[in-house]
Amino acid sequence: MTDDRPDLLFGTFVTPTAREPRHAVDLAVTADRAGLDLVTYQDHPYQPAFLDTWTLLTYAAARTERIRLSGNVLNLPLRPPLVLARAAASLDLLSGGRFELGLGAGGFWDAIVAMGGRRLTPGQAVDALSEAITLIRDAWDTDVRGGLRSDGPYYPVQGAKRGPRPAHDIGIWLGALKPRMLALTGAKADGWIPSLGYLPRGADSLPEMNARIDEGAVGAGRDPRAVRRLLNIPDGAAQGGSVKGWVDQLVELAVTHRITGFILSSDDPLSTERYAAEVAPEVRRIVAAEASS
Amino acid sequence: MNELGIAIDLGSIPLERAVSLASRAEAAGLGLVVLEVGDRSQVSPDPWTVAVWVAARTERIALGVARASEEEAATLPAPSAMAKAEESFGLLNGTRLLGDAGGTPAWISADRDADATELERLARGAAPVVVPVQDVADVDRVAVVAAQLTPSEPAGRPAAVRSRRRPGIDYDGVPDSLRETAVEPGDPGYRAVRSTYLRGGAPGLVLRPRTVAEVADSIAFARRHPDLPLGLRSGGHGISGRSTNDGGLVIDVGAMTSIEVLDVERRLVRIGPGATWTRVAAALGPYGWALGSGDAGGVGVGGLATAGGIGYLSREQGLTIDRLRAVDLVLADGTRVRASREENADLFWAVRGAGANFGAATAFEFEAAEVGRIGWAQLAVVTADLADGLRRFGEAASAAPRDTTVFLVTGQPRPGQAVLQMYGIVDSDDPDVIVERLTPFAEIGMLAQQNVVLTTYPAVLGQFPEVGAEGHHGVGEPVSRSGFLPAMTPGFARDVAGLLHSGEVFYFQLRPMGGAIADVPAEETAFAYRTPAFQVTAMGADQHLTDAAWDELADHFEGTYLSFETDRRAARLHDAFPPTVLDRLRRLKRRFDPDNLFRDNFNIDPFPDRAQDALVGAQRGDSDD
Fold first, then answer.
1. What average pLDDT is seen over chain B?
2. A55 near B85, Cβ under 8 Å?
3. CA-to-CA dists, residue B73 to B69, B192, B337, angstroms
4. 3-state helix, strand, coil in chain B (%, to 5)
5. What is d(CA B298, CA B296) in angstroms, rounded to the nearest whole number?
6. What is the reported pLDDT for B543?
7. At A71, which CATH number?
8. Which of A90, A125, B482, B574 could form a disulfide linkage to A120, CB 3.0–4.6 angstroms apart?
9. Confidence band, pLDDT 50/70/90 cuts, at residue B70
10. Cα angle vertex A11, ends A99, A13, to 5°?
11. Nearest by CB to A56, which of B44, B45, B88?
């Protein structure tokens, strides 16, 4: 790379189906062997058809060699932040620095409450997420002496022990769509990880949403480039789409909208392999060429 | 002799070494690794994450994760979230995680320097033994002792499976005939048998008899556990019928699926309780016969044919129990009996409506009816006036000839418009007749959707997926209320519209009755409500809220259909069975099940006064203290 643009990441977005539990693991192994950078799983603990995503992430990390892993995104209301911080650091240490922390504020409150979580309004959920990010980063920071303290209100802590320290700087990536979440992403997160299909106007929403993240970053005194923009995408070559057209689309997203992580929704190993072999290198090549020209 | 393993203190042993010691333990032939945090004031990795990692990188060794301290527990995920994680561990690794479901410790910790004699002594106890280790030499030393221990008796499940056993169940006393098919919580097949269609469960043992003798063995085993919940399961579709529980026994007759034609002339068929109605329809179809059931093909024969059976063919054929000619049962004392009009007529009366109180049915003999090609209809109409739509449906359904049965389903209406879904059968192969019969329904509101096809009864029931080897995965408890409606009235339609607008009920169904159901005298079966115009069902999210809303409608109803009733207040038993019926059922219960073994659903207590006396006595005892 000739500029300070972060390197492109290509990954997969896998359904944590409980019905064939090893399938979700095999897809991680496939992505790992195919040379992709990242494998991610959605997290809906109240969904009986799904595996527990943390257990799956850990298991898949143990069965892969090189690939990075993340929740896409982990459900904060059912994963208390201090446990999450310790678990994330543990997995990062066990895996040799291969874990990233995709995190969300939660949305299906009836299901969350039924599972023993606490009901929050959407606004409260954003505040709770903000508080949790601070707490998680503090827990990882073992350079600071003394126990963790926080007055809450969502996660009050009185002197809990810090650590362990992760093997690398774990990125905190937020699944964000609404303005306050986007502002929080800019102010505090290391990455943004929405799904293209959920953007209100598809890719046309990106300029506005990126701008909100930028504003959030600037407002917090950060460089907007510190927030990596990732995107969950469908298989552009499915249903007869051409690989060439798909590549052009991703290049456009990278060049115009600063997207530097492309996460393919795929539960099909062939689709994963094609993405790794035909799409990722080509997008990487063209984007690098455009950046240097 | 129990297994021997190691304990690793994640608070003092570096993570990399901890992982390699676990692998070493497996390679050395040890049985388990326990991950603990000795000094909780020290920084330590997350034991769960380490346990999953170790499991993924080993093949066989069992893992134990020490419980969090009470102080820490407050910051942990909700227990249901932890349970989900443990279930996923099992799905990925098999049962290799030690639990403490039985209330006893899942393992015993020995002293670091315990010698072989001491370890052997500890291993004779109830739980596996772990020795704290620091390094590879420690692991190897434990392995040497383990190799010298007297080998444990053959068979038996591994420690991780045994640790999931529930208290009060004589697992080692499961009869030989049932041992191979029984499923306990740590077994790989448990996930597929623990829950039912709409209900989550965690039974301590599921017995799966395949023959009448095995059913008798199952009942004998259940009789030795009189204080545990006991469920009887056929298809596992029950809404009020529990057929699962928490920590109790389930007798699942799902393997008894035979369907046999006994007499072609009389259309007499013999069917096992575990067959589903989809299978029954498919087996009878080639003969040009059908047996009415409910409206879902995945329902099991046993549960429905002992309760009633109000379905698409009931107005023409009667209830499912009206087609029953004989039933074979195993009673609570293990006796095998046949009940029909001629033999054990009392029992035959009781089984048809209250069967779950009297025994485990092992075979049903039905007289099927001739049913050829039929019209199958799915209609949706939109109406601005929900009450008016319900009233008009009531008129159309009750005015329809016996060959036509159309059910109605609706939910909370959107502002200004309600959608009424209707689906049902016209028993005719003449398209003109089918259209004529359906027209009054289609005219209830603005027709938004219609699908009418000429088909067969097996094809109609076959639309519903049957549960496969994966089993049911219901969660929580269904909330359902039922009532028999003597006639559709403007007042009822208005009150139901109010109920639906309140949002307390998300599913509301009307099943037309009448026709052949009413041809049968009320005293013929324990199912005594022969004259209602409709069976009404409402499902909500919260039992108390739904009860409060539904109780407002009570004056409209005469009785309830127990199959769709989940309210457990005592008054419901009196709704299900009118006084004379209940008295007779009680007398028979005293004769056939005096110890009240079969009590899981709509229990007819043989000695209600005795229970009351005991309760009063206990309360007095308390107050004396």
1. 92
2. yes
3. 6, 30, 54
4. 35, 20, 40
5. 6
6. 93
7. 3.20.20.30
8. A125
9. low
10. 90
11. B88
pLDDT digits (tens, 9 = 90+) for A87-125: 999 999 999 999 999 999 999 999 999 888 999 999 999
Per-residue pLDDT at B198 exceeds 70: yes
- With H, G, I as helix, E, B as strand and everything else as coil, classify residue B285: helix
The confidence score (pLDDT) of residue B457 equals 96
Q: Which of B44, B56, B88 sits opposite A51 (nearest CB)?
A: B88
Question: Is A167 a domain residue?
Answer: yes
Predicted confidence at residue B71, as pLDDT, reads: 65
* pLDDT value, residue B154: 45
Rounded Cα distance between B535 and B550, Å, is 14
* CA distance linking residue A156 with residue A144, whole number of Å: 19
* Residue B247 backbone zone (phi > 0: left; psi -120 to 50: alpha; other: beta): left
Domain count, chain A: 1
* Chain B residue with the nearest C-alpha to that of A110: B541
What does the pLDDT average to over B50-60?
A: 96
Tell me how far apart the alpha carbons of residues A247 and B301 are, in angstroms, rounded to a whole number.
56
On whether residue A3 sits in a domain, the answer given is no
Which residues of B have a CB under 8 Å from any CB of A?
15, 19, 41-46, 48-50, 52-53, 55-57, 75-81, 84-85, 87-89, 91-93, 470, 473, 475-476
pLDDT at B74: 67
**What percent of chain B stands above pLDDT 90?**
79
Using the beta-carbon criterion (under 8 Å), do B88 and A61 form an inter-chain contact?
no
In the structure encoding, which two tokens stand for residue B110, read together?
């020995």
Cβ-proximal residues to B343 (8 Å cutoff; 6+ apart), any chain: B326, B337
Residue B611's pLDDT is 63
Q: Is there a contact between B77 and A18 if contact means CB atoms under 8 Å apart? A: no
A2, part of any domain: no
User: A165 in a domain, yes or no?
Assistant: yes
Sign of the torsion angle spanned by Cα atoms A105, A111, A115, A116: positive
Do B426 and B433 form a contact (C-beta atoms < 8 A)?
Answer: yes
Q: What residues of B are in contact with residue A22 (Cβ under 8 Å)?
A: 92
Instruction: Tell the CATH topology of B374-576.
Output: Vanillyl-alcohol Oxidase; Chain A, domain 3 (3.40.462)
